[in-house]
Amino acid sequence: xxxxxxxxxxxxxxxxxxxxxxxxxxxxxxxxxxxxxxxxxxxxxxxxxxxxxxxxxxxxxxxxxxxxxxxxxxxxxxxxxxxxxxxxxxxxxxxxxxxxxxxxxxxxxxxxxxxxxxxxxxxxxxxxxxxxxxxxxxxxxxxxxxxxxxxxxxxxxxxxxxxxxxxxxxxxxxxxxxxxxxxxxxxxxxxxxxxxxxxxxxxxxxxxxxxxxxxxxxxxxxxxxxxxxxxxxxxxxxxxxxxxxxxxxxxxxxxxxxxxxxxxxxxxxxxxxxxxxxxxxxxxxxxxxxxxxxxxxxxxxxxxx
Length: 305
Known about the structure:
4-stranded mixed sheet; 21% strand; alpha+beta; 5-stranded mixed sheet; 8 helices
């Protein structure tokens, strides 16, 4: 039996680890970007950011002042037995968020959208956000992602319907134009991890883009050749814009471009872009049927990508 107490602990540890200990794939992406950066100022910015990442881990402090939205992706085993069921699971995760807020791993940033009421614990209507996958097995895997306010609110998330006649060129033009507009406005903090959702309804495309940005490993590739080709062209195109770190110039504007898709209606192709922060804060913990907890290397949301 998986208990509420262990779920709360797993959620808290995922927040703490995701906020302070940046994943190895992101660190490796910084090292590669530093090695190929020709602009001395941009290289210095990347090096200082990597040093800041290391200090955040050493002192167990959030790697960015904007601790973002508390977002959870849950892979639930079909045979998993959860104390109190899924309603209890979500409440236990909320308790983990409250604890992480109290201990300073998340800032008090969640407010009522109209009144500005601040509950002080990052808990409110539809927040935290929960997304589920149901899989074989008897364990529960909880992935925490911190989606920053700038990358989500002020231009890092955009959407358009592209006509079938415009094809991949229309898709790629929209993504590059959207990224450029967001970077020029200072709405995002390059180098970004860019997620792209293609197809489905508007919300399906947006969710795919966010999942691609938040859950795919940096350096991974889509298994379908035509999708991987789009990823590679967009990666080259965005980095060719020359925005560089924090828009100050340089050859690394995106650490990765990850594309996911859904089948769509013949009426058109919804395309969504979701930019994730350069530190890509995430962590995954598995709770086994015996109520033990272990940290996983990645969310494995898209198979081995």
